[in-house]
């Protein structure tokens, strides 16, 4: 909101990076710096053409190469500069990083089960989800504050970081964040500004947002 208390009608598009080889192998990437595959670059180009139609005002991105390359496709179409911030990196997951899903379950079964139940777990000795939200959400909020009224911010980040950031920005308790579900490669979620704060308008979308028609507008 602005100083008068009026809603500024800003939007935040949280866009996950394109496909990587570790995504295909179901390896936990975390903060490991893995590049996009050719298919991932194609995904980024397709999604960028759609997101460019939203006429974004600013682009923020994690500084890891899979997000930087994804963001670069949108920057090329819009002429916007990309601001990179390590606060938007994926969760650091220590010993889990580089392991497949099956290896994590086999070696860290109790830890994995506790995480899935919504308990605060340092996966592989790494970050808590709340710590990820505490570093990422303020980066997004600062970017949104710089928008003009009716402006749109695109944030290019990672699945886990996007989920925790959405949960923090819309005010959900941390143990419920898992209910938001994951994002497919190069899909995005959209937050819109309301008088009561940020509201989730679209989740795991791959097409342009449509207005809500009916009683819930």
UniProtKB/TrEMBL annotation:
It comes from the Bacteria. SMART domains: PGAM. Pfam families: His_Phos_1. InterPro entries: His_Pase_superF_clade-1 (IPR013078), His_PPase_superfam (IPR029033), PG/BPGM_mutase_AS (IPR001345), PGM_Phosphatase (IPR050275). This is Histidine phosphatase family protein. It comes from Streptomyces spirodelae.
């Amino acid at each position: 909101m602005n100083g008068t208390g009026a809603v500024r009608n800003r939007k935040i598009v949280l866009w996950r990076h394109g496909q990587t080889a570790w995504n295909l192998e179901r390896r936990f990437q975390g903060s490991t710096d893995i590049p996009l595959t050719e298919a991932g670059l194609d995904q980024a180009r397709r999604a960028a053409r759609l997101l460019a139609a939203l006429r974004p005002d600013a682009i923020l991105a994690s500084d890891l190469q899979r997000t930087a390359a994804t963001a670069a496709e949108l920057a090329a179409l819009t002429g916007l500069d990309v601001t990179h911030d390590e606060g938007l990196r994926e969760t650091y997951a220590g010993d889990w990083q580089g392991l497949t899903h099956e290896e994590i379950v086999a070696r860290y079964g109790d830890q994995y089960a506790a995480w899935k139940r919504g308990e605060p777990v340092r996966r592989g000795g790494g970050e808590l989800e709340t710590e990820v939200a505490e570093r990422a959400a303020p980066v997004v909020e600062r970017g949104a504050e710089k928008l003009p009224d009716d402006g749109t911010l695109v944030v290019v980040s990672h699945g886990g970081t996007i989920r925790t950031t959405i949960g923090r920005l819309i005010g959900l308790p941390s143990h419920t964040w898992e209910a938001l579900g994951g994002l497919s490669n190069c899909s995005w979620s959209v937050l819109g500004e309301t008088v009561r704060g940020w509201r989730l308008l679209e989740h795991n979308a791959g097409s342009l947002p449509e207005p809500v028609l009916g009683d819930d507008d």
